[in-house]
Amino acid sequence: MKQARQEFYANVIEENKDSQGKLFKICKHLSNHSNVPTFPPNIDNALFANGIDNYFVQKTARNRRNLDDVDSCSNDNHVLGQTGHAQNTPLINEFKELSTSDVAALTKSSLKTCSLDPMLSILVSHCDALIPIIMQIINTSLQLASFPVEWKEALVLPLSKKCGLQLIFKNLDLQVICYLCLS
Predict the structure, then answer these.
(1) Which residues contact 102 (CB under 8 A, 6 or more apart)?
(2) 112-171 pLDDT, tens per residue?
(3) pLDDT tens-digit profile of 159-170?
(4) Continuous segment of H or E residues that includes residue 54
(5) How far, in Å, CA of 122 to CA of 13, rounded?
(6) Which of 65, 53, 37 has its CA nearest to residue 172?
(7) Could you count the other beta carbons within 10 Å of the beta carbon of residue 177?
(8) 76: alpha, beta or left, given left = phi > 0 and alpha = psi -120 to 50?
(9) What b-and-e string marks burial along 10-43, b requiring 16 or more CB atoms within 10 Å of the CB?
(10) How far apart are CA 110 and CA 58, in angstroms?
(11) To which H or E segment does residue 137 belong?
(12) End-to-end CA distance of the chain
């Protein structure tokens, strides 16, 4: 039975190897992820998403203003300057370029994948031909001090802080599902 199941899913995966969406659905099914909605189905998704965005942007701005109002702390090493960084925190002005062995270690370190990724992490980790390309992308990004806008996407899931709380923004935490898109 186990062998038949393995062969069945191996065939399904092979048949759908060019469809990232179908592969994610298969993986979700195999890992027993439930599709239980967190919120009532009658919510206007666009309005809700924009409301969450506005709430957390304002909350972040308020927190930054509060940090800017801090003149000093009990420890002089933690005094915040105009940038909001501790004054004794060193800035990175130079870096050592990554080598292919550094990147190879990175590609093996975390095999998490999300639907924003153009390729499953497990495939990237087994494709040594990509290592020099990934190394060049990372080193160029560091040299130019630039991180492409396309890579600044995230899938964020709003979760209730506690079961049974009223569905209002202050009762929500945001869980970042995926924070980088390499498309």
Answers:
(1) 135
(2) 777 777 777 788 888 889 899 989 998 998 888 888 787 777 777 777 777 777 777 888
(3) 777 777 777 788
(4) helix 45-68
(5) 14
(6) 53
(7) 13
(8) alpha
(9) eeeeeeeeeeeeebeeeeeeeeeeeeeeeeeeee
(10) 33
(11) helix 131-144
(12) 39
* 8 A C-beta contact, residue 142 and residue 128: no
Reported as type and span, the H/E element at residue 158 is strand 155-160
The distance of Cα 111 from the centroid of its chain, to the nearest Å, equals 13
Residue written as token pair 């001090």 = 145
**pLDDT by residue (tens digit) across 69-115?**
764 444 444 444 444 445 555 666 778 899 999 988 887 776 777 77
Residue type, 19: S
pLDDT of residue 55: 86
Specify the length of the chain in residues: 183
Radius of gyration of the chain (CA): 22
Tokens of 119: 């390729």
8 A C-beta contact, residue 30 and residue 5: no
φ, ψ for residue 7, nearest 5 deg: -65, -40
In whole angstroms, how far apart are CA 60 and each of 57, 89, 170? 5, 22, 13
pLDDT for the residue 136: 94
Average pLDDT, the chain: 75
